[in-house]
Every structure is written in C-alpha cells, then in structure tokens.
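Project outcomes to date are best conveyed with an example. Our students and postdoctoral researchers have been running inverse folding experiments weekly, and each run begins with a structure described purely in tokens. The record below, which covers 226 residues, was selected by the lab manager from last quarter's runs and is presented without edits.
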C-alpha cells in the first residue's frame, strides 16, 4: 500500500483516479488546487504524487518547481493535455518522473504508478548511503534529481524514455537484463511484448553513449558493460 496524493481540480478525473487507486489498495488524498496540493505534498509523507498541470491558482509547473526546489523527492506523475509536447517536456525538465496525456485509460496510469513506486523502492533499498541521487557505472553518470546524463564527463541529451531505460541498466551494472525486464521498467507491463521497441531504444542509447557500452547477450537481452 502506498500513500498517493492526487492534485487535480476536475472532480470527475480526481474521483476516477482516486477510486481506481483505492481499489488497488492504496490510500489516496485529493487536493483540488495547487496551493493546497503543495502544502500537503510538502507536509505529509506521500509515496507518490499525481499532479495535473492545468490547475486554478498555482499551476502544476509551479507546484513541481516548489516541490523540487524545497528538496522533496517524492515521485511525481504529471497529467498533461493531449498533444501538448511542450508541457510534457517542461514537466520532465522541471523534475517530473513521468507523465500521462489526457485522456488516458486507468490501466495506463496504474502501470506508471506501479513502475514509479517500484523504482522508488529499489532506489531506497539498493543504494544505502548514496540514497540514489546519482547512478554511475562505466563512465556513465545519471543524476536522478536533475535528470541529467553524462558520459565520460560529456553531457548527453536523453529523452525521458531513454533516461528511464538507462536507469535500469545503471541500477544493474554488468547484469544481463531481458527485453521483458527492460520493457517492464521503461514502458510498463501492458506494453506489447512482441514489440522491438527495446532494441530500437538500446540502439539510441548506443548511438548517444557509445556502442561498446551495451553488450547484446544472444537469446537473453542486454548488459551494460561496467
Ligand atoms: Ca485541470
């Protein structure tokens, strides 16, 4: 069970999300505007925040900005208007962990929520003293807070998906990760497993970070060469 804060002014959407997450066993709190949402997010110990961008008063971008500048690391999934690529990019650059474009199916949001909660868990338990702000292996460095990536000191521009995919490689340096594990981590469990999207994205990472960093393990998957 996780404690999830939903900051959304549209009652219909807020209740749809809250009901669904409650049915999954989570404890939900709804805030109908940005100010109250920010207060709750800063004051209470939430495991995840679902944040609408279009809010009366303080909008979602401001809430996110305040949260991150005050050091809150709670995972945030933003809800953006459909086709608003600018909003999505700004939100991810502003420290959101993930996004959903409206309208969405609940199953899609749930996949994102599960993924983010699991990652937060993994980072909390695996990293010990490092607390998971920065992941580093084989000259590749990923700052989870600023969402910046670099290789051998050179900054690399990654898309949100490439970033998430690289994250699981860095959490498991040297380990073979199956396509299913990579899909599950970066795309959510309900993505078509027959898709070659993993291979395509590992290709992108090779192009940006160096082909030698990702070894193909025949019949199994990929491995980050540490
Ligand atoms: Ca709204």
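After processing, the design step wrote out the following sequence:
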């Amino acid at each position: 069970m996780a404690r999830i804060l939903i900051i959304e002014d549209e009652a219909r959407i807020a209740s749809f999300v809250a009901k669904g997450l409650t049915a999954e066993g989570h404890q939900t709190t709804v805030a109908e505007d940005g100010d109250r949402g920010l207060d709750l997010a800063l004051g209470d110990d939430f495991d995840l925040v679902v944040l609408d961008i279009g809010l009366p008063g303080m909008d979602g971008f401001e809430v996110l900005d305040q949260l991150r500048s005050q050091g809150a690391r709670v995972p945030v999934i933003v809800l953006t208007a459909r086709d608003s690529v600018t909003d999505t990019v700004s939100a991810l650059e502003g420290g959101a962990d993930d996004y959903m474009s409206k309208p969405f199916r609940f199953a899609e949001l749930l996949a994102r929520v599960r993924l983010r909660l699991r990652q937060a868990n993994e980072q909390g338990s695996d990293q010990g003293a490092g607390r998971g702000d920065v992941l580093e292996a084989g000259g590749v460095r990923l700052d989870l807070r600023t969402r910046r990536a670099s290789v051998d000191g050179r900054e690399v521009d990654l898309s949100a998906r490439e970033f998430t995919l690289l994250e699981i490689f860095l959490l498991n340096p040297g380990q073979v990760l199956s396509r299913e594990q990579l899909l599950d981590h970066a795309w959510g469990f309900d993505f078509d497993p027959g898709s070659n999207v993993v291979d395509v994205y590992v290709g992108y990472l090779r192009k940006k970070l160096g082909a030698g960093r990702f070894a193909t393990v025949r019949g199994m998957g990929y491995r980050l060469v540490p």
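The first strand starts at residue 3 and ends at 7. The CA atoms of residues 149 and 155 lie 6 Å apart. The training component of this project remains on track.
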